[in-house]
């Protein structure tokens, strides 16, 4: 199943699965714990331009 999904990504996005995964790994969310209040603050990462381009190729509008 993973091979089928990987091949689909390669064909639709037009890049190797390695390049796609390397770009996807750059998008990481972070959690910071405030020790005074005990609450977590979540910082969400913005997708890179390449990932936005890949997403548009993988999920074209209807």
Describe this structure in words.
The chain contains 3 helices and 2 strands; from the N terminus they run H-H-E-E-H. By secondary structure, the protein is of the alpha+beta class. The model has no long low-confidence stretch (mean pLDDT 94).
Q: What is the secondary structure topology, with strand pairs?
A:
Layout: H1 2-13, H2 17-24, E1 30-33, E2 40-43, H3 49-58
Antiparallel strand pairs: 1-2
Short key terms for the protein model shown above:
62 residues, alpha+beta, two-stranded antiparallel ribbon, 3 helices
Strand content: 5-15%
Structural class: alpha+beta
Tell me the Rg in angstroms. Answer: 16 Å
Count of β-strands:
2
Number of helices: 3
- Gap from first CA to last CA: 26 Å
Fraction of residues in H or I helices: 40-55%
* Stretches with pLDDT under 50, minimum 5 residues: none
Shape: elongated
Counting structural domains, the number is 1
Q: What is the string of SSEs from the N terminus onward?
A: HHEEH
Global mean pLDDT: 94
Strand order of the largest sheet: 1-2
Give a short account of the largest sheet. 2 strands, antiparallel
């Amino acid at each position: 199943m993973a091979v089928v999904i990987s091949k689909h990504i390669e064909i639709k996005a037009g890049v190797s699965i390695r390049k796609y995964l390397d770009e996807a790994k750059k998008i990481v969310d972070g959690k910071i714990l405030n020790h005074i209040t005990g609450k977590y603050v979540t910082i969400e990462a913005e997708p890179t331009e390449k990932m936005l381009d890949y997403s548009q190729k993988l999920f074209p509008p209807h």
